[in-house]
Design goal:
Number of helices: 8
Radius of gyration: 17 Å
Strand order of the largest sheet: 1-2-5-3-4
Number of strands: 5
Largest sheet: 5 strands, mixed
Structural class: alpha/beta
Strand content: 5-15%
Order of helices and strands: EEHEHHEHHHHEH
Number of domains: 1
Length: 230
């Protein structure tokens, strides 16, 4: 709760929002968010996946192992959430497309930028559909598939906790340095601006249900905190 990778935004007429920034699929991040969610006991758990893909990670979270073997920090957070309502906040829906269209109209990006963004959005939709298919196969056959294409790190759950934590700190430090020193390519900036705006709007709506914990990539942590504090 007291690190550079957690933001707590107290609510006035609504619940608090606690943002947890992670290195995706890192073993230390998996452990850390599980412990944080269990400590906060939120009313709502929001995760950086598409709603269409969420059932796959909910299935992974039923694993008896702690943290679950599949699904990275998302399934670890879900497994620790107990009675919280779990929501995917990073989907491509009508709100996302309207927000994207508004930004395109305002910024008039180059055709090459538009093509790259469109390809990225199509890839997200395709991945979400594959995750939903994997969840359907698991629920009907009992055969669990790993279809979420996890990030592979140099450290694993079998390493000593201190080794895992050191590696996570190193990666978070490099990520922050890159974010602060280099501007992202225009297609990535445009896409992530839309994602951040939509995720912040969804979190603002969810906090009306009570306290919220949101598990997101570290790069989204500060933009979301800034938008929610406005």
């Amino acid at each position: 709760m007291h690190t550079d990778h957690v933001r707590r935004l107290p609510g006035e007429a609504a619940g608090d929002v606690t943002l947890a920034g992670v290195v995706h699929d890192h073993p230390a991040s998996r452990y850390r968010v599980g412990e944080l969610v269990a400590a906060v006991e939120p009313d709502v758990l929001a995760v950086e996946v598409a709603p269409l893909a969420l059932p796959l990670f909910e299935g992974y979270a039923t694993d008896d192992r702690s943290p679950p073997a599949f699904g990275g920090e998302v399934s670890a957070a879900i497994a620790a959430a107990e009675d919280a309502r779990v929501v995917g906040i990073d989907g491509v829906d009508g709100t996302f497309l309207r927000t994207l269209a508004r930004k395109i109209e305002a910024e008039r990006p180059a055709p090459s930028t538009l093509a790259t963004v469109a390809s990225s959005v199509a890839s997200v939709l395709r991945r979400a559909a594959i995750c939903r298919l994997g969840a359907t196969v698991a629920s009907t056959t009992g055969f669990r598939l790993e279809v979420d294409d996890p990030v592979v790190h140099e450290t694993t759950l079998s390493d000593p906790p201190a080794t895992q934590a050191d590696d996570e700190r190193s990666q978070l430090s490099r990520s922050l340095t890159l974010l602060r020193c280099a501007d992202p390519p225009e297609p990535i900036r445009l896409r992530d601006d839309v994602r951040d705006e939509c995720m912040a709007s969804r979190l603002d709506d969810l906090r009306t249900e009570g306290d919220v914990v949101a598990v997101v990539g570290r790069g989204h942590l500060d933009p979301l905190a800034e938008r929610l504090a406005e």
